[in-house]
Amino acid sequence: MNFCPPRLPNGSPSAISQQTILSRASHSLPPEELSAAVVPAKKALPAWRATTIAPRQQILFRFTHLIKDSWDRLAASITLEQGKTFKDARGDVLRGPTLQPIELANLFRAMPNILYIRPGDSEETASAWIVAIQAKRTPSIISTSRHTVFLK
Q1: 3 state SS of 3
Q2: Within 13 Å, how many C-alpha atoms sit on residue 152's CB side?
Q3: C-alpha to C-alpha distance for 21 and 2, rounded to whole angstroms
């Protein structure tokens, strides 16, 4: 199947305009396209790392506003791709795993004296519990994802 997702590494369209994807689930990329996305991201990382929390929050809130402004197109895309009803797809967009975590994370990080931890895997989750238990003078929030986290 020919599928041409928009790719804008470094702010400009990818030189490779089309590819064949055999599995829509894997979304695998040719190495040259992966490199075209990773190299600009690596260049941008030092500036992002130096950015304080307030500008980062503004960027993420802008992202959530863009999603909310385009919810109907995103829901239509989910309907076509996954076969969901439009109403169900709209719920995925407006209450899905993208918007709520961003809004909640920004809320938690803005609270003074709160230890907010968002672990990404089982090792980070186990470490987060240890850190939260040891933080006796600070309230702790551990925000885990909806994905299964296996603790060993």
Answers
A1: strand
A2: 4
A3: 6
What is the spatial distance between Cα 68 and Cα 129, in angstroms, rounded to a whole number?
34
Alpha-carbon distance values, 49 to 1, 23, 42, 55, 97 (Å): 39, 34, 11, 11, 24
Label residue 26 exposed, middle or buried (CB < 10 Å: 0-12, 13-18, 19+): exposed
How far from 111 is each of 46, 54, 80, 104, 132, CA to CA, in Å?
26, 13, 40, 11, 16
> Residue 32 is inside which H or E element, if any?
helix 31-50
Which residues are registered as beta bridge partners of 3? 19
For residue 65, the one-letter residue type is H
Q: What is the pLDDT of residues 54-103, one digit of tens each?
A: 888 888 888 888 888 888 998 898 898 888 899 888 888 877 666 667 77
Rounded CA separation 149/80 (Å) = 30
